[in-house]
Amino acid sequence: MTSRNGFWRFATDTSPEGIRESILSHLRLSLARSPDTATTFDWWISTAMMCQDHIVDRFLATYRAQKAEKVKRLYFFSLEYFLGRLLHQNLISLGILEQTKKALIGLGLDIDQIFEEEPQIGLGNGGLGRLAACFLDSLSTLRYPAFGYGLHYEFGLFHQDIINGYQVERPDDWTRFGVPWEIIRPRYSQVIRLYGNIDWNKQKPVWVGGKEILGVPYDYLIPGYNSPVVNVLRLWRSKSTVEFDLEAFNRGGYFEAVAEKNFSESISKVLYPNDKTEIGRELRLIQQYFFVSCSLHDIIRRFLKEHSNLDDFPSKVVIHLNDTHPAIAIAELMRIFLDEHNLSWSKSWELVSQCFAYTNHTLMPEALEKWSVPLFERVLPRHLQIIYEINKQLLDNIPLNIQERDKLIRQVSLIEETQPKLVRMANLAICGSYSINGVSALHSELLKKELFHPFYILYPKKFHNVTNGITPRLWLLASNPRLSNLITEVIGDGWPSDLEQLDALKPYAQDPAFKEKYNLVKQCNKDELSNLLKKKYNFVLDPEAIFDVQIKRIHEYKRQHLNLLHILSLYRRLLDNPNLDIHPRVFLIAGKAAPGYDLAKCIIKAINAVGYKINNDPRVNKKLRVYFVPNYGVWSASKIIPAADVSEQISTAGKEASGTGNMKLALNGALTVGTMDGANIEILEAVGERNIFIFGLRAEEIRKLSTSGYSSRKIYESDPEIKYLLDWLKSGEFSQNEPPSVLYPVVHSLIDGGDPFFVLADFHAYKQTQLEVDQQYKDRQMWISKAILNTASLGWFSSDRSIQQYATNIWDLSPCLPK
After folding, report:
1. Quick one: which of 23, 27, 530, 584 has the fewest CB in 10 Å?
2. Are residues 647 and 616 in the same domain?
3. What is the pLDDT of residue 4?
4. 36 in a domain, yes or no?
């Protein structure tokens, strides 16, 4: 391995000829195929295996260096990782994309067609999982020692089809043809216990009986960009520890023979089982415990290979809880130290409380997981004991002279005194972590002032802010090659690893020649997306129209129904005045609703119903189109984002923790229409108020309105336009051959459902802002300048900056370079 201009070159041949031979070797030796019989899928597998060879070289060098230096490592715990397609990203990170293109051209192949063959690794619900993937990319790029841990779901979230306007879920069987990226490590399998009871006849409580489950690790290697470091994402798959009962099977006990196997394998079957049922809640708790227990045993195994004294554990191990889902890790690590390593309570707590850091990703109280005490006691009886003791010490240590002590005790207690009692997992995460952070400036302040205010009173120094970021390697370099090439042409090629270099583009916002090139890039991206959606879904998009984009998880607080009401308003205006002078606009909406979230699924139905009516109405469809893009994920985002003109970030102020879609779209030159919520506030500060469209109530105004008594029904009854639009939506005109009642839930939520996210309160401000968007877009030169300034001003929102802040201010990590 040699270094040249900061780029590490390994002995593996990276010439087009060497890459070509490696692909052909894998085609023959790994797949038993010849070029004349190979399918495009075979070529993808062979190309991915070639790429993996290069990654493995770097991984082995990284492992040797980290082991030799006995480094402090980050262990990142997340239930979600939305990796997407890896081949394109990995070729960019390795610096061999162009060589691979040439090698494939020499074989008569199109690399873009090969990219399309790769299944998406969609082990996430949305922003949380994609953020985790961006963070892994940045950790390797910045050369920090890190392991990611999660679950190897047999099925991803789900594949979303839209049938008659309804979301229909089907399994996302992403591993069915094999995955060339994964390395199975059965030697490092872990056995964990569930259920059982406590044996009190010993000197100390002993957890006995129950079921044992085997956790088998699957490793994904994560290379850094322009970096010699490759870190690991380790995902656990559940297996049965019980041998197959052949005797029972042969005597006819078929179900008896496979029952244990089915139970064990169900644990890692599906991301987020529906928790509407008791069985679903139980499985979800088991999933969380299974993954953290396997991971903690793996961490301790690795630690004891390199160190002899557990007293050194906090100086070599930092465990980061990515949201509340892995919070049971605090009780589990206590159990391991107490029961398996025979440490005292005080020593165990000293070690545990110094090695955990916790990021909160939501301001929605209902998203802070709580488990019923009876469920917890049945599944994890020893952990409930430990949680009770942690809680006792927490409450006993609250100062006697503190104001409203009894109220504070009720608020911070790990146990909520309801019927049945509930275990508060967020409180456990805060109590057991040395650092708690929010993910935007506003979010972190609201954590301190509202959601976790009682804990802030007790532990003010624990609270921090690290605003989220996105990896520019995927969200600009890979997804928008036209814009990337233009930027490189002007400011050089250093920006993908130092995104704040984009600041050098600001003077070009007034340069006519650059503006023309930038506009051409955007137009080509819009042409490409139009052709793609026409081919895939038969959508008809006018590339000259405004592409107005809202792509994110479908949820009431993200307010896709506010967007829908504005679309209805625009439709009404066009019907009333066919000569209305507006620029043609295409609304593109995409996202998945949780399978058990009926109202979110009804919002999808309403969008499709209104879209169908508008798109087939010749009176308006030259100026207005509405499309819902199915099965939103990393791949579709990478196609839509470069083509977007307008970015809809319209969540209720004070509800969105950060958002990262707002960053991706602004980086690619879309102007934000948004509330003062999440990272929108920091984007406003970065781009300037002239280059963003801010509207609506602020968080403090929402709070006051909620406290004083908000009545959406009064708005409905007193506002003629809002009443007309809601009555129109439920009139049956958009229901086609179905009863009008199919859209009632959306209307009901906004009137008699109390409009919990203040859609009606913000409607007129939103509508007025959209008029400003239309007027400003007509001045193309001004709009292009604003778009350029958005791209130029987003450098601070790199995930590299986020990780650098975590490493310096929270994790106390140092880079480690292979020798």
Report:
1. 584
2. yes
3. 35
4. no
For residues 378 and 513, membership in a common domain is answered with no
Averaged over 76-105, what is the pLDDT? 97
Give yes or no for a contact between 124 and 270, defined as CB atoms under 8 angstroms apart: no
Residue 216 backbone phi and psi in degrees, to 5 = -105, 125
Same domain, 635 and 752: yes
Pair (464, 480) in one structural domain: no
What is the per-residue pLDDT across 664-698, written as a single tens digit (0 to 9) for each? 999 999 999 999 999 999 999 999 999 999 999 99
What are the pLDDT digits (tens) for 8-52? 434 468 999 999 999 999 999 999 999 999 999 999 999 999 999
CB 478 within 8 A of CB 638: yes
CATH of the domain at 459: 3.40.50.2000
The total of other beta-carbon atoms located within 10 Å of residue 313's CB is 20
The DSSP annotation for 49-83 comes to HHHHHHHHHHHHHHHHHHHHHT--EEEEE-S-EEE
**Within a domain: 166:** yes
Give dist(CA 530, CA 542) in Å, integer: 7
Element (H, E) at 760: helix 759-778
Active site residues: 361, 552-553, 558, 660, 664
Evaluate whether 264 touches 239 at the Cβ level (below 8 Å): yes
Query: What is the pTM (predicted TM-score) of this model?
Result: 0.95
pLDDT for the residue 146: 98
Buried/exposed code over 373-396 (b: 16+ C-beta within 10 A; e: otherwise): bebbbbbbbbbbbbbeebbeebbe
Mean pLDDT of the chain: 94
pLDDT digits (tens, 9 = 90+) for 770-793: 999 999 999 999 999 999 999 999
SS3 770: helix
Name the residue type at position 522: K
336 residue type, one letter: I
Q: 717 and 748: one domain?
A: yes
Please tell me the distance from the alpha carbon of residue 589 to that of residue 180, in angstroms, as a whole number.
33
Q: Which of 30-34, 245-249, 354-358, 516-520 has the lowest mean pLDDT?
A: 245-249
Alpha carbon distance 351, 699 (integer Å): 39
From 271-275, 293-297, 411-415, the region with the lowest mean pLDDT: 271-275
Mean pLDDT value across residues 240-258: 67
Distance CA 491, CA 486 (A): 9
Q: Distance between CA atoms of 811 and 819, rounded to whole angstroms?
A: 24
Q: Which structural domain range is residue 530 located in? A: 472-797
600 falls within a domain: yes
CA atoms of 103 and 17, how far apart (whole Å): 6
Sorting pLDDT into bands at 50, 70 and 90, what band is 588?
very high
SS3 readout for 703-743: HHHHHHCCCHHHHHHHCHHHHHHHHHHCCCCCCCCCCHHHH
Phi-psi region at 682: left, alpha or beta (left = phi > 0; alpha = psi -120 to 50)? alpha
Statement to judge: residues 202 and 300 lie in one domain: yes
31, 42 in Cβ contact below 8 A? yes
Q: Look at residue 562 and tell me whether its pLDDT is greater than 70.
A: yes
Per-residue confidence at 307, pLDDT binned at 50, 70, 90? very high
Mean pLDDT of 234-253: 78
Identify whether residues 651 and 757 lie together within a single domain: yes
Rounded distance, CA 215 to CA 221, Å? 19
**Same domain assignment for residues 397 and 506:** no
Could you identify the residue written with the tokens 């030169």?
781
What does the DSSP assignment read for 423-482? EEHHHHHHHH-SEEEESSHHHHHHIIIIITHHHHHH-GGGEEE----B-HIIIIIIT-HH
User: Strand, helix or coil at 673?
Assistant: strand
Question: In the chain, how many domains are there?
Answer: 2
Under 8 Å between Cβ of 76 and 146? yes
730: in domain = yes
